[in-house]
Design goal:
The complex is a heterodimer of chains A (167) and B (326). Chain A folds into 2 domains: 77 residues, ACT domain (Alpha-Beta Plaits), CATH 3.30.70.260; 77 residues, 2-Layer Sandwich (Alpha-Beta Plaits). In chain A, 28% of the residues lie in helices and 36% in strands. Chain A contains 4 helices and 8 strands, in the order E-H-E-E-H-E-E-H-E-E-H-E. In chain A, strand 6 and strand 7 form a beta hairpin. Chain A is elongated. The two termini of chain A are 26 Å apart. The relative contact order of chain A is 0.16. Chain B has 2 domains: 159 residues, NAD(P)-binding Rossmann-like Domain (Rossmann fold, 3-Layer(aba) Sandwich), CATH 3.40.50.720; 143 residues, 2-Layer Sandwich (Dihydrodipicolinate Reductase, domain 2). Helices cover 43% and strands 21% of the residues of chain B. Chain B has a 6-stranded mixed sheet, with helices on both faces. In chain B, strands 8-10-9-7-11-12 form a 6-stranded mixed sheet. In chain B, helix 5 runs parallel beside helix 6 and helix 6 packs parallel to helix 11. Chain B is globular. Classes of the chains: A alpha+beta (167), B alpha/beta (326).
Amino acid sequence: MLITLIVELEDKPGQLVRVLEPISKFGGNIVGIVHQRGKKTPLKRVPVEISLKIDKRKIERLLKKLKEDGIIIRSCDEEKFLATTSLLLIGHIIHTDLSDTIRKVDSSDAECVELHVSMPRAKEPSTAMLTISARNSEELQETVKKLKEICREKEILVLEPINEDIV
Amino acid sequence: MIKIALVGFGTVGQSFLEILINKRGLVEELVGKVKVVAIADSKSSISGDFKLNYALDYKRGKGKLPEKRSASEIVENDDFDVLVEATHTKLDGGDGLRYIKTALKRGRHVVTSNKGPLVVAFHELIKLAEKNDVRLMYEATVGGAMPVIRIARKYLASCKILGAIGILNGTCNYILSRMEDERMPYTQVLKEAQELGIAEPDPSFDVDGIDAAIKLVILSNTIGIKTRFEDVEIEGITRISPEAFEVASQKGYTIRLIAESKKECIRVAPRLVPLSHPMAIKGTMNAVMFKTDTAGEIFLAGRGAGGYETATAMLSDLMEIYARGN
């Protein structure tokens, strides 16, 4: 599974390797590392965000080992959302209970993560760009399908992006 | 000598004849001697020995041709090698379907720009042509002068075509790209398009997505995805607002009417297209992108409509049948 680990490291040579070695030992595959130098802690430590793929059963042991080695672990989150898409909605989005529409999407396996609404004139149809995230593309597709059904009932037009990968 | 019977003498039929007159040298160099032995419109005709310019001038002057023999009579009885069928598209196939069937049964090649017959009877007509050992050519039905059908059938013959997306209606693309550029309301841009002759007085055939859906049916069947008109999910462009472009552009998108064919779904709908994507094409242009198993994506763009463009596709079909070295 993909996890995001944020650790706080002292700003001196040889610190990152103290984290990477145990990850490597437990068979983790690093996807990305971001040094957040601009977000130094009051004690001048640098937060480092590490995304890695690792066997779920080994996470506990990895964290235990890091703690034993004196690494400060700020957080360790399972990466929930890997698939994201944006959809354009045209119609009476507000008057057909926008929060109901969003609630119905959120109650599935996905979440609305961003919404931008434009309302030109009262009583005229409005436009919204809705961004939805889900754990994987199958769940995302299911959610899009569900959203389209909800919007069909509410007579809201849904514009999907064309897929870069069309099949 | 190749004997041609031309049925349907509106914009496309006249353009076909005009190009043939102007490019006779080039055409005959490629396919040998060509003779138009009969021309018919819906109520009149001309046949036998006649000058092509005479027929063209007569039609343009009087709105008809000098003789009374019907198109049916000519297709059923006259001696010709290839029927060039350019009658208007009717959703039930119309007279065009009858002409095409008759010609194929008589063992004559057919070149058509008429979408109707191919939508209602694609596989039946293909089989009929095979059975009678003649060719049925329909490049002009999809994407105007763009060689969409030829690319799929001939040049990508060694690939499995997994799907296709396309902009198949120039009127809709004109309206949407004007809305994108000027942020004008749909009705205003439609009016402008009508004044320019880009949109019909009754625009519903285009703006409701019917025309794009018809072409998508032909394209789908060509790439091996069996499709009937009723299978296509259709949504037109009439509900698209200028604000929609505003909101979409903030995320890096524009909006185009996209026809999409893949095994799981056949649909025509306004879609979000990344501004940097080749499908974000403007004006009356058409575009098609094939996705293949071994050749990746193939993208084509060009003029999707117009008399000369359509007639050019028909002439290239004629050359495909007869060109030396084929």
